Amino acid sequence: MDKLRILIPKGRIFENISRLFAETGFPISLADRTYRPVIAVDWLDAKIMKPQNVAELLELGSHDVGFTGIDWIRESGAAVEEILDLGFDRVRIVAAVPVELDEARLKTKKLTVATEYVNLAKAWLDHVGYGYRILRTYGATEVFPPDDADMIIDNTSSGQTLRDNGLRIIATILESSTRFVASTAAMADPEKRGRIEELAMLFKAVLDGRDKVMLEMNVSKSRFTELVAGLPSMRSPTVSPLYGDEGYAVKIAVQKREVPGLIPRLKKLGAGDIVEYDLRKVVP
């Protein structure tokens, strides 16, 4: 089978993707000033591209799979197949205006709207009925108002940068995160589809493992039934007898967020020698 050609976005997304591959078992190495990272598996051929270009290149068929935000997929309108929402780099695509610009003026004037998201902006502006002219930007969109634009449509995680520049959010147009996506041609090829699904399974196992921990504990025979009845678990807990028939060792996988409240409850239910450790992968 030909190598699976994969696009990895440059910029802030790259670090998250690189870590994901490393935890999957396929570490990425990238020399300075190169766009051809090496992945430690012989059936992957990778290239670094801007996230804005990934979906369109997949649609063209020059690559098989890649990573990009759903915002850039919607902006490009490219026909790709979404395989997995990785949940990285969560942002909102918002419309923001100077704090002093009120709704009445928004409705009555022809707005100059600065944005990198030209297609998303046009669709939203037409929907809400504003008069507008689009001014395409190439980064640092928040600096355009009030001198050079009346409104921006841009991505934000917390909104702090917008507030620091005297802007207020008036609408959320889209919520975005990084997706693992594939070309329709690759998904139509049984061998490539199989490889893609294997990658998706491994990625999901890593992501699920990050959210969970394993708790191990010992419990006496007299408290065993009470303890097991009070356990949360992905499935049934793993139970094995202790040496000397003095009780049981119990293992459960739980959400990390449950642990602070769970450990005191387990102690009250008779658990002892409680050990917590991270999971690297969780495959149902």
Tally of helical runs:
10
> What's the structural domain tally?
3
Mean pLDDT: 91
Biggest β-sheet, characterized?
Answer: 5 strands, mixed
Radius of gyration: 25 Å
The CATH homologous superfamily of the largest domain is termed Periplasmic binding protein-like II
Helix content: 25-40%
| Assigned CATH architecture of the largest domain | 3-Layer(aba) Sandwich
Q: Ranges with pLDDT <50 over ≥5 residues?
A: none
CATH first level of the largest domain: which class? Alpha Beta
- CATH fold call of the largest domain: D-Maltodextrin-Binding Protein, domain 2
Taking the alpha carbons of the first and last residues, their distance comes to 28 Å
Dominant shape: globular
Sketch the topology as an H/E string, one letter per element: EHEEEHEHEEHEHEEHEEHHEHEEHE
In terms of DSSP E residues, the strand content is 25-35%
SSE blueprint:
Layout: E1 4-9, H1 12-24, E2 28-29, E3 38-39, E4 44-49, H2 51-60, E5 65-69, H3 70-76, E6 81-85, E7 91-98, H4 103-108, E8 111-115, H5 118-128, E9 132-136, E10 151-156, H6 160-164, E11 167-176, E12 178-182, H7 184-188, H8 190-210, E13 212-219, H9 221-229, E14 238-241, E15 248-255, H10 259-268, E16 272-278
Parallel strand pairs: 1-4, 1-5, 8-9, 8-10
Antiparallel strand pairs: 2-3, 5-12, 6-12, 7-10, 7-11, 13-15, 13-16, 14-15
